[in-house]
Design brief:
alpha+beta, 8 strands, globular
């Protein structure tokens, strides 16, 4: 079965759906977070210091200038919610670096925009934002560089998170493409399913 035939009905029916919800759209200013909306965010894992979620509604392929989808580049928003020890650790590190801690008494976690390069098997934190208890931005960092997934230990917490995101994207590739604002190029539309980049990558299993 080829992509063009498989997605023909899905794309036309789902183009009205947005793939770029923002925190501001989901929470009114001043509202205190009492939980994560699971219709938007999917929980992946918990550690003693944080809970890890990604936005499964906003996960999607990069859109090229001509409006077609770049099936080699997957963009995924994520959030990590901290416990009190991790919050204090972040604050202390900012003090050591002589960075402002204004508003950090309300720190709850951080958001990240992840860019997965499926051709080169790298992940880049395009933007990292510290969040307060209304999911407002305390500070942003856009200095992230691509990191080869193969350089991460399979026991690494972030490796396990990245792997889970990629596995979800592979299982829901039709949905991701169908609800995208972009369109498939003719070449990509004719790709056999086993030649689609997300289906070609090898992701080593994570170790417990």
């Amino acid at each position: 079965m080829r992509l063009k035939n498989f997605f023909a009905g899905i794309i036309s029916a789902a183009m009205i759906l947005t793939t770029n919800p923002t925190f501001a759209q989901e929470w009114e200013e001043g509202e205190v977070i009492t939980g994560v909306p699971t219709e938007i965010y999917m929980w992946v894992q918990s550690t003693p210091r944080a809970n890890y979620w990604f936005n499964h509604q906003a996960a999607g392929y990069r859109i090229k200038e001509d409006g077609t989808l770049d099936l080699n580049t997957l963009m995924v928003p994520a959030i990590y919610l901290y416990d009190n020890i991790q919050i204090e650790d972040v604050i202390q590190k900012r003090r050591w670096k002589k960075l402002s801690t204004r508003g950090y008494n309300k720190l709850v976690g951080r958001s990240e925009l992840l860019k997965f390069d499926l051709k080169n098997m790298t992940v880049q934190v395009v933007e990292k934002t510290d969040l307060d208890d209304t999911w407002g931005a305390l500070d942003k960092d856009t200095s992230g560089e691509p990191v080869a997934l193969k350089t991460l230990s399979s026991k690494d917490v972030m490796y396990k998170f990245y792997r889970a995101v990629l596995e979800w994207a592979r299982a829901h590739n039709e949905l991701i493409i169908g609800r995208s604002k972009g369109i498939l190029s003719d070449a990509d539309g004719d790709l056999p399913l086993n030649e689609v980049p997300i289906n070609k990558i090898f992701i080593p299993p994570a170790e417990s």
